[in-house]
Design goal:
This protein is an alpha+beta fold. The chain has 5 helices and 3 strands; from the N terminus they run αααααβββ. It has one domain: Glutaredoxin. Strands 1-2-3 form a 3-stranded antiparallel sheet, with no helix packed on it.
């Protein structure tokens, strides 16, 4: 999913884990950030739903999922 959607879509850069690890200040490249994501799966935006090649990820506002058609 990360390769289809992109890290910028999947990573919750506003979440507590991202802030706690101070990743914004580290300026990681995509490979480094992906390795962190594998270790810290709490950084994945939720919910993350895939059905028939269509994705819904995170909330833009209460009760509404963002739709991504890959």
């Amino acid at each position: 999913m990360v390769h289809q959607l992109g890290l910028d879509v999947v990573v919750n850069s506003k979440g507590a884990t991202y802030r706690k690890l101070k990743l914004k200040e580290k300026n990681l490249n995509e490979d480094e950030l992906f390795q962190v994501l594998l270790q810290e799966q709490g950084m994945i935006k939720r919910p993350l739903i895939e059905k028939n090649g269509r994705f819904w990820i995170g909330f833009d506002e209460p009760g509404i999922l963002n739709f991504i058609d890959s």
